Input
Amino acid sequence: MSKSQKVVVVTGASQGIGAEVVKAFRKLDYRIVANSRSIKPSDDPNILCIAGDIGDPATARRVITEGVARFGRIDTLVNNAGIYIGKPFTEHTAQDYAAVVNVNMTGFFHITQLAVAEMEKHSSGHVVSVTSSTADNAISGGYSVLAALTKGGLNAATKSLAIEYAKKGIRVNAVAPGIIKTPMHAPETHEALGAFHPLGHMGEASDIADAILFLDTAPFITGEILHVDGGQSAGR
Output
């Protein structure tokens, strides 16, 4: 396999947005390091699947170490892994809080730190994180405090990292989705959830994958939070 082929790491890669991102990058002939708790091995020799909890530092180390050993480099990191627990704020338990922080923030921290260290060796790379439109645009009737706390933190970190690493050739961006059709949302809820968006419908996983690919091929964009949310961030 040619070492000139680009390599992307995708977390939360087994279903929904993550699976669509893997498919989109493979169409562009990227080699993939795919992670999720439940991911199964792939028959495609250009896809390395590593199962494990991304909030565990040991999993993050395996993803980067085994990815570099197999493919020789890391060009792009897509921080897609995330969970959402929808409850009124006062009903959240300590376990809810720990679970959301573990995936949404701790998972981002460890894998990004390791990926950026690898990118520094080549003076190039791109980190893009999937955050949430509700991080900065709360919706009446939606329970978004833990999403705002964690995904909003990632938006802020995106801007900080973009500035810190700009002169080292590493770009850092985020995509902030609205509510997307994934296995997280039962089909019978789609109409009601679609009404939260000015465009009147939910987004598709491919909409987010397309936005990530756009940012990955836009060399003059860094520190950007790209809202792909059916108009939610513009107002209601």
Notes: The chain has one domain: 7-234.
